[in-house]
Specification:
By secondary structure, the chain is an alpha+beta fold. The protein has helices spanning 12-23, 31-38, 42-48, 68-74; strands at residues 27-29, 57-58, 64-67. The protein has a domain at 27-81: Multidrug-efflux Transporter Regulator, Chain: A, Domain 2. Helix 2 packs across helix 3.
Length: 81
Amino acid sequence: MAFPPNAPMMSEADLFQSRIILNNLKTHRGKKAIANFLNVDERTVQNYLGSGKWPIKRDPSGKLVLCEVDYYLSLDANGKP
């Protein structure tokens, strides 16, 4: 995908800041880690997997992965999934 021709260029400071943010994305791998982060039982994570309520994905090895940013972006205005 190409950027629009009139898109503003990022300054070096902005680019550096975005690299820091991307490198510090917190992810939780595995049912147990995700359950601990969400403060729910592992069975709840398993039950909600197919519902799409939480943005849980699988990595290439098949392990469950939840990125905190994706989780917080999936919440509604009341903080509920």
